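Module 6 notes. Inverse folding takes a fixed backbone as the condition and produces residue identities as the prediction. Think of it as a translation problem where the source language is geometry and the target language is the twenty amino acids. Below is one complete input and output pair. Work through it position by position during the lab.
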C-alpha cells in the first residue's frame, strides 16, 4: 500500500486519490478512531452522491474485486449494503440521491445520466437542450434526416423527434410518429456518448 505524508492526509481536498492513497487515508483514520476499543470496531465509510456517478465502482476498486453491482444507468444500487473490507474498514454502498437543485434543471440532470430515462415524462426539455448543444449537421448525419434551417421556427424538438420516429418507423397506436420513443433513444445515445457532444 502506498504511503502518504501526514501533510497530504485529509478529506477536504481536490486531490484525486488513487486506490492505494485512498486506502492509506481510510486506514489512517481507522487506526486513530476515537473510542476504538477492539479490532471489531471498524471505521464505517459511506458513499453519498447523485445516481450513476460511480459510487459502487469506487467500492469495487477499494475491494479489489467486484462485490457490488454497477451499471451505466441511474438507480442500479437500490439498497444500503455494508461490506467488511478487513478488520479496520467497513464500506457502505448507498443508492444515489437526487438532491433538489437550483443549479441544474431536470433536463440537465436527464442529459447527464442522473435521472432515469425510462421513467421520464417531459422529454421535450432534454431534447431541446441536446439540440442547443449538438450542431445541426451532427444530428442530421447521426440520424440520417434533414432538419429545417436552424434559425427557422420549425427547428424544434417536436419536429426533430417526428423526423426520427418516421424514418425509423416508430409509430403510436394512432399511427402518428412516436416522439416519446424517439426521445428516449436520442437521450440514451447522448448519455452513452453515441451522439457525440464535446
Ligand atoms: N468514464 C468513467 N466511467 C465511470 C467511472 N467510474 C464509474 N464509471 C461508470 O459509471 C457508470 C455508473 O457507475 P456506478 O458505480 O454503478 O454508479 P453509482 O453511483 O453506484 O450509481 P447508482 O447505484 O445508480 O447510484 C458505470 O457504467 C461505470 O462503469 C470513471 O471513473 N470514469
Ligand atoms: Mg451504485
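Target side of the pair, the amino acids:
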Amino acid at each position: 500500500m502506498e504511503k502518504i505524508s501526514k501533510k497530504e492526509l485529509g478529506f477536504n481536498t481536490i486531490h484525486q486519490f488513487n486506490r492505494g492513497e485512498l486506502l492509506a487515508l481510510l486506514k489512517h483514520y481507522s487506526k486513530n478512531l476515537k473510542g476504538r476499543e477492539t479490532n471489531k470496531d471498524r471505521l464505517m465509510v459511506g458513499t453519498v452522491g447523485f445516481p450513476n456517478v460511480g459510487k459502487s465502482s469506487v467500492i469495487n476498486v477499494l475491494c479489489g474485486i467486484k462485490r457490488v453491482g454497477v451499471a451505466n444507468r441511474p438507480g442500479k444500487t437500490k439498497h444500503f449494503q455494508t461490506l467488511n473490507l478487513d478488520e479496520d474498514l467497513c464500506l457502505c454502498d448507498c443508492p444515489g440521491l437526487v438532491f433538489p437543485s437550483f443549479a441544474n434543471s431536470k433536463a440537465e440532470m436527464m442529459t447527464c445520466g442522473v435521472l432515469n430515462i425510462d421513467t421520464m415524462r417531459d422529454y421535450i426539455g432534454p431534447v431541446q437542450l441536446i439540440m442547443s448543444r449538438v450542431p445541426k449537421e451532427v444530428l442530421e448525419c447521426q440520424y440520417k434526416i434533414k432538419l429545417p434551417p436552424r434559425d427557422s421556427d420549425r427547428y424544434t424538438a417536436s419536429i426533430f423527434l417526428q423526423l426520427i420516429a418516421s424514418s425509423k418507423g416508430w409509430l403510436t397506436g394512432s399511427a402518428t410518429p412516436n416522439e416519446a420513443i424517439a426521445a428516449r433513444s436520442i437521450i440514451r445515445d447522448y448519455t452513452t456518448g453515441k451522439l457525440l457532444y464535446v
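Reference fact for the lab report: Residues 179-192 form the longest helix (14 residues).
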